[in-house]
Amino acid sequence: MALVFPFHPRVTVTLLVLLSVLSLAAGGKLLVVSVDGSPWFSTQELLGILRRKGHEIVVVAPEVTLHLKPSENFALKTYPVPFTQDEMDGNARAFFKDAFEEGSFLERFFRLQEKLKILTESAFITCEQLLNNKEIIRYLEESKFDALFTDPVFPCGAILAEHLSIPSVYFARGMPCGLDSEATQCPSPPSYIPRPFTGNADRMNFLQRAKNILVDASNLFLCNFFFQPYEKLASEFLQRDVTVLELLRKASVWLLRYEFVLDYPRPMMPNMIALGGINCAHKQLPQEFEAIVNASGEHGIVVFSLGSMVSEIPMKKAMEIADALGSVPQTVLWRYTGEVPPNLPKNVKLVKWLPQNDLLAHPKTRAFITHGGSHGVYEGICNAVPMVIMPLFGDQMDNAKRVESRGAGLTLNILEMTSKDISDALKAVINDKKYKENIQRLSDLHLDRPIHPLDLAVHWVEFVMRHKGAPHLRPAAHDLNWIQYHSLDVIAFLLAVVLLFLFISLKCCMFCCRRCCSKKGRKSKSKSKTH
Amino acid sequence: MALVFPFHPRVTVTLLVLLSVLSLAAGGKLLVVSVDGSPWFSTQELLGILRRKGHEIVVVAPEVTLHLKPSENFALKTYPVPFTQDEMDGNARAFFKDAFEEGSFLERFFRLQEKLKILTESAFITCEQLLNNKEIIRYLEESKFDALFTDPVFPCGAILAEHLSIPSVYFARGMPCGLDSEATQCPSPPSYIPRPFTGNADRMNFLQRAKNILVDASNLFLCNFFFQPYEKLASEFLQRDVTVLELLRKASVWLLRYEFVLDYPRPMMPNMIALGGINCAHKQLPQEFEAIVNASGEHGIVVFSLGSMVSEIPMKKAMEIADALGSVPQTVLWRYTGEVPPNLPKNVKLVKWLPQNDLLAHPKTRAFITHGGSHGVYEGICNAVPMVIMPLFGDQMDNAKRVESRGAGLTLNILEMTSKDISDALKAVINDKKYKENIQRLSDLHLDRPIHPLDLAVHWVEFVMRHKGAPHLRPAAHDLNWIQYHSLDVIAFLLAVVLLFLFISLKCCMFCCRRCCSKKGRKSKSKSKTH
């Protein structure tokens, strides 16, 4: 039955606008799926603000998670998975422990791949369990959400958004195998946009550019390896053949954890919002940490954390690190949950957790030793603290290269570094003022923005909820195939026309020449006859 | 002499940061060059805000301008030009009058080109006069500006920025011959980004895509026609060979008067800031207009303006328009300075000027008759007023197509339209509620933004002044030539490697086969011998 308003059309329009504004004021309904690991930390802050603005938030998560915990800001709906918390933590620990284990490049590569397979498989099983959980799916179908918020790296959220016919907001730093560029139709010329994990910067020589293109070619297989299981699952669940790319292309807005102080300038599409530094909102430093910092005297402190995922380091390495930390006069706050190294110097305080961003914000903080995760690196930039980076995995190598190439920190190879290397690097970033000046310049540029990334993220989530998506930001490129997009059909047609024209012109010329010659020939013949 | 601070390095850094903050608080120094015509209106507002924020602004302009007038917000430095105000106004009038004159397509094209040549020539002479004015140039050299703000369509500002070695901010809707894409290194695939003046939308059929590519090809010649005189002038002035493209590539930030409710979604570079709707800030409606609007009764008003440049319309056309305006019950406010049509109906009030945006904002405004300039169209969208568009020139046809394709207005051909056409179109946009609904939807999307475009413009001008440019937003693509950018060298190399590999493999196979065959042959021979 159509809704009929017994008013003049103009009054009806005004009423509808008012109703939509009121429905916004009453808050929207947001579904959050497939966000865990370090992206959860900034998601949590975002959800807190959305909750305070009156929106209703439901987070769907497996019973076993890495960081996701219940909160008063959202309703948590959990579903069972066929593994325990210990098994999951063990897998994650094993994965990160691997980064410290030596071996030839090939040995390490295959070991890493094996561990990665275990992690991605458990993510896939988690997704399978969700989609097969009839009770939760029925609940979601009945709940009438306004939008879905998800980390697209695990495309479970994308499948659900399609099933529920609701618009989605993605929150990511990038996608495996460059699928984000394809899904957003964002041009990404390999000539100056370095591919992840290549160690390339934006200025590349010939061989680096060749490496970049080869990575693009290998992505065709990598994408298949990573996403094929999800395609099968999605096709079964949605009861029609779909590809993951097809699903990702439907995203309304991509909130991307990068921007152009750390990351290299590159094209963006209108629905790609750069939010690098979203995790830099400050809170009050807890009293116990304030006391430690204040007690550090004129030398101040060094903050040291290899991220929430690394719980233990091989003892030999840990002792080398401890040895190096003892060589600086600063108090070192080291987030570490493994076995305490017996040579732990007096100036090092081990803690199970530390308020990283708030410690970095303290004016007494002199340096930051980090694994180079994008969250940590942005916190280093926000707070203008020079860094010593020990990358372990993923985009951490690339982040480290970016910081180092800007003279704002130094990078160490976690496998090869000696105690002296660590000590030298740490002393350099603390005492050589160029590191502080460079990170200060980056920080000034980064913080000089018209709006805080967290507010920008809130705006776009609300925008998608209010307007049921953002179709006006969807480029028409999505409707073209590869040949059409690159205008190859038009170029071939125009070339054919030009060639045809040249051919006909040539034929005409030859025909004219022949006629002239034959006329001349006849003339000379007739002349010779008359003579 | 180097500046030496007698402090600890860390104290020095803090002091330097403090000093830079203080210098900002004391205000920067902005030079404004080559902004006239309709872009001046929004520039003026922007300069007003910058002035109130404590910045010093100097506008350099010829003694004869279209709209630029002295103001308390800036110091105006003028220089003489070899033509009078009457001559300039006459040229502009003749140019716009031409739009109403009939003739075959070719006749109109050549007439328009002739008039356009006169206008661009006078702009070029203006630039020449500025660069040859030793007194002003010396003053500018001595004034030590922090940044230069200019409309890059006339590249006089770009030449000056290069000479003065100061960063520049461009304010434009686009550039002739697609030079903006080239200068920003922004990808602009012709397969879904319609070229100006083609009448194409973002969804094109094969022939429209072919037309788009042919326009790209013709741009090579058009750019030459338009910018070659400036290249000669710039090379002489800067005393080295430069191209206009080379100068434009140095812009720190491009403030672009478009966004994606009116314009089609397309890639953007990090230093391209979309500011469509920058001109929609409301002021109080003057009392005389308030009175007219209030007296219009339940039917409300229609706002009619063909822009500040059209002063008169041929009498026959004016009478047809007047006739049509009489057919609606609304009061029509018509901005018109030409001879009053004798058949002017009672509901039409001719005015020499009207506060267009503030009138459109009035809830009693039912429709907007406009020539489709981007300023006017954005004001129509901001205020959700359905439009009847009579495009005259330039991007107005494209703007009209965009509004019409979104069902938010109707377009009329200014040469062919009859009194009935105008009346029908006007009645349709007023009475058919779909137009109001569509423009309301566009308006809701357009106004739902995290920050007002005017504030965004202020932020970026200040950013460039504070940081002496924005080099971190400059893509590395600027350092590549055409072959490198498109990776053609790498692709050729990889192809060569693959072909070489195939060739060697084939040769090896053939060699092996031959050896096998010859062995067999020898064997069979030796066999036959033994037999």
TrEMBL record, chains A, B:
Main subcellular localisation: endoplasmic reticulum
Parts of the chain that traverse the membrane: 490-513
Zinc recorded as keyword: no
Catalytic activities: glucuronate acceptor + UDP-alpha-D-glucuronate = acceptor beta-D-glucuronoside + UDP + H(+)
EC number(s) reported in the record: 2.4.1.17
PANTHER family associated with the record: EG:EG0003.4 PROTEIN-RELATED, UDP GLUCURONOSYLTRANSFERASE FAMILY 1 MEMBER A1
The protein's name: UDP-glucuronosyltransferase
Organism of this sequence: Callipepla squamata
